[in-house]
Amino acid sequence: MPVGLVFVSHSARIAEGVVELAAQMAPTVPLVAAGGTDDGGIGTSYDRVLAAIGEADRGGGVLLIGDLGSAILTAETAVDLLDEEPAGGVRVLDVPIVEGGVAAAVAAESGADLDAVARAAGGDAPEPAPEAPAATEADAPAEAVVALADPEGLHARPAAALVRLAARFDARVTVNGADASSLLRVIALGLRHGERVVVRAEGAQAGEAVAAVAELLRGPAA
Questions:
Q1: Would strands 178-179 and 172-175 be described as parallel, antiparallel, or unpaired?
Q2: DSSP state letter for 195
Q3: For residues 86-101, b (16+ Cβ closer than 10 Å) or e, as one string?
Q4: What is the CATH number of domain 4-120?
């Protein structure tokens, strides 16, 4: 049950465009546009946001992201007007609607919970308390150094694929020191074709994670 996302914009076209973009990288996540007024004008609508929350709720919680200050206010008011909150919880974030929305969608696609999806979007959800399992030989860190094969560099789509891949393993993966669970941090590296990439992981499946991510970065011809 993935976290559902609602995009609240003053423009119906902007909200629909973010849904279209995010869907390219998160095809199984409920993505709902709540843009414009009830008569199709520029503005926001409590009724549209309320309906969108219900549509996005699949049991994993719902995250709302707005484009401007009053959109956030509309989203927060709509949440206050809910007869019953989604079982998985509901949150409103004031983050860039495109960058934060796409990052949230990729995190939700990987199975992250509501707090983790909010953090991926750039929100201030609390970090979970770290676990301290007994160290074993299998938990030893693993590392690989590869040259980035993609001729376009590590842009949004391959970065999203990397984030989803890294999430499959019981390991904490970093790419040139950036947390591989965060699409925004991976994209911010600005890695270009041929650049040196250090993939490192710690955890029970560190070796498998590094091997898989390194293979992705090397490309199919490697």
A1: antiparallel
A2: -
A3: bebebbbbbbebbbbb
A4: 3.40.50.510
